[in-house]
Structures are given as C-alpha cells and as structure tokens.
Design brief:
By secondary structure, this protein is α/β, with parallel strands linked by helices. The chain contains eight helices and seven strands.
C-alpha cells in the first residue's frame, strides 16, 4: 500500500530507520533497492560540472543526522545524456561556465522533469548576469518555453516541509559581495503539475555547503539544514 505524503513525513520523523518509500519512489529507486535516497550529480558536456566536491558528502551526512532515511553515503555521478539519470530520485547540477545541452542531454532533462523528477540547479557564480545563469536559463526556455522559471513565493512548502524557515537563507558568498554583489532573496522554479520540478538558485548554496562535514561543529547554525528541506520536498511531493 502506498503512503500519503503526511504518512511518509511522519515515518521520516518518528518511525525509525526502517521507513518504507511510497510506491512511486520505490519505482524511481529500483536500481538501488536498499536505499531510500542517493545523491546524483549530473555531468554535462559543456561547462564545468565538477564543482563543490565536498558538498554532497556533507549533505548526505546531514540527512543521516536529521532524518530516518536509509541514505547511500556515496555521491553518484551520471552523465545527463545517460538514461540512468531518469531513475534518480533527486539530481544536482551546478557550474560556473557555459551550459549548452547536447540533443541527448536536452531530451533526458525534459523527460525527467515531465515524468515527475526533481533537479536542483545551483549557479556557482551567484550572478544573474553570469555565463552559467544566462546560458542555463536560455536552455530552459528552449525546453519549456518563455517564463518557465518563476520566482518561488515566500510561503512555499519548500520552506517548511522539514525545518521551518521564515526567510530564504543567505550565503557567505553573497554577503562578501562576490558575483553580482547582490543578496538574492528568492529562488526560481519550474513547476509541473503543482510541484517543483526544477529548483534554480543564484545563491551558490553548493559552495556554501562545500566543507568537510566534521567542521560543521564550528558553525553557530548548521547551514545545511536548508539542503534537508530541498531533499525532503523532492521525495515527498
């Protein structure tokens, strides 16, 4: 029997490490049946996809720390052009440089999104006028049409699906004045059938979370908590 979103969240929070995934998510993770979640980084032929290399292990550690998910501790790197990415419960894409999809990459990105997948895309330049931002947004227009990326409202479920956030967290890179010298107070998203399918950030969260997880003890506030919300939203909507 499949679980409702509320039941699944209750199991994540209270039921212990043996929680089961809903039927739809079990189908998505069929290649890795002993894990509830695994982190997939998308490799694309243009640009520099291999950034913030310590971020995935830090986020995975936080998922283990704060939730009861059975988490694969390894990052999975999958070419966007590979049909294997269509099975991932969550995908991450980032970079500084040009984004120009091949035909196979464009087809898989579009199909994954339209089939109910979730892709978190983070601009490492944290710059709305930078090369990554302009070229990625142009690719989205080609695939999904004009105005496909919309600002995410402050009251969206993403901000309270696990931890409560009254406002979007800022990053130290924004505060230090790098990039476009702005603090971005919003995220953008492509919404399909009422849920976020592509979450797009100019805030450089990837670099913000790019440190050895053991150094988290020096932080007054654990800045990876927002990453937990992103993953939980991806799995439960």
């Amino acid at each position: 029997m499949s679980l409702t979103r509320k039941q699944f969240l209750q199991r994540l929070l209270f039921a212990g490490a043996g929680c089961a995934l809903p039927v739809a998510l079990r189908a998505q993770t069929a290649g890795k049946p002993h894990y509830d979640f695994y982190f997939t980084r998308l490799m694309y032929e243009s640009g520099d996809w291999d950034v913030d290399q310590r971020m995935p292990s830090n986020v995975l550690n936080s998922l283990i720390e704060y939730t009861n998910l059975k988490v694969d501790p390894k990052e999975h790197i999958v070419p966007l052009a590979d049909p294997e990415m269509l099975l991932a419960p969550f995908c991450y894409m980032a970079g500084h440089k040009l984004v120009e999809f091949t035909e196979a990459e464009a087809r898989n990105f579009r199909d994954y999104v339209n089939r109910g997948g979730f892709i978190f895309v983070d601009d490492c330049n944290h710059d709305i006028d930078g090369l990554f931002a302009k070229s990625f947004e142009a690719q989205m227009v080609k695939l999904f049409g004009e105005d496909c990326l919309q600002k995410l409202p402050d009251d969206h479920d993403l901000y309270r699906c696990f931890f409560q956030f009254d406002e979007l967290p800022v990053t130290s890179f924004e505060l230090n004045g790098w990039g476009d010298d702005l603090v971005h107070d919003y995220l953008k998203a492509i919404v399909v059938n009422g849920r976020i399918a592509v979450l797009y950030s100019n805030k450089d969260f990837g670099c913000e979370w790019d440190y050895d997880y053991r150094n988290k003890r020096w932080l007054a506030i654990d800045n990876t908590k927002f990453a937990i919300n992103i993953v939980i939203y991806a799995l439960t909507t």
